[in-house]
Amino acid sequence: MKNTLLAGVAAASLFLVSGQANxxxxxxxxxxxxxLYVSVFAGASFPxxxxxxxxxxxxxxxxxxxxxxGYLLGGAVGMNxxxxxxxxxxxxxxxxKADDYNATNSTGFTTAGTASGxxxxxxxxxNLWADFENDSSFTPxxxxxxxxxxxxxxxxxxxxxxxxxxxxxxxxxxxxxxxxFDLSENASIDLGYRYKSILNVxxxxxxxxxxxxxxxxxxxxxxxxxxxxxx
Length: 231
Description:
The chain is mainly beta. It folds into 2 domains: 1-33; 35-230, Porin. Helix content is 14%, strand content 66%. The protein is elongated and about 65 Å long.
């Protein structure tokens, strides 16, 4: 009887220890899947022409502003939702120098020339990325995000006051893909592509004029390199 009791106690102890070990492993797994991370990134930004509508005392112009290659800077704070999905909040900023402009009215009259100054965009986005993990140190991913963007201009068209002034807040989104490379258990390098856009932006006329440049999309293709650290 004594031996049977001791065997029962030993079996129960083994069961409890095994159960606690499994619980600890599950807790650790849950902590890993909900781990936080931060990232910073920078890169080159290749803008599309900004096309707007300009009303000059009843005469409507279709205006296209060409921009030079600019830069992208930003950072994000994120969390692993599952082994495959992660969500993050991103704050980023781009700036491009003005290059040239073209304005055509309904009668076919066209004016064109050089432009100076800059256009900038600031994005606050909620992103969702899908990671395709494998046995290598490289992890491809795809995803995107949406949120708000502020577009702003300080430009001069053809040496006159004709140009984009202050812009406004608008709906913003991005689509992207990339490849992460693990440097260590906690750190990785991220090479990515992003298409970013702020839709339907209205710019004030430079110099505080009464007219406005309306219905412009500020969009760009971006190649970025980043560093991510997981906690």
